[in-house]
Specification:
By secondary structure, the chain is of the alpha+beta class. 40% of the residues lie in helices and 18% in strands. It is built from 2 helices and 2 strands; from the N terminus they run βαβα. The chain has helices at residues 25-40, 56-66, and strands at 15-20, 46-51. The chain has a two-stranded parallel ribbon. The N and C termini lie far apart (43 Å).
Amino acid sequence: MYPGQLPSVKLNLFNVIIALDLSQTSSLNFLTGAVFNIIDRNFPVRFGLVPIVETEEGEITLFKYSMH
């Protein structure tokens, strides 16, 4: 596989659902790196983001932003 090339999952992949703990730096790095790279290349993909809670800090963050 060449640098920057996406691994082949399936020929007709149009929907992607990602479950991330948004309080974790690694999750945010993945979101800003891989996902925005796909968006910049104009691939016809719909993204869904499911926030999950793995830590107490994540629970506080989720509760704080769900009140808006």
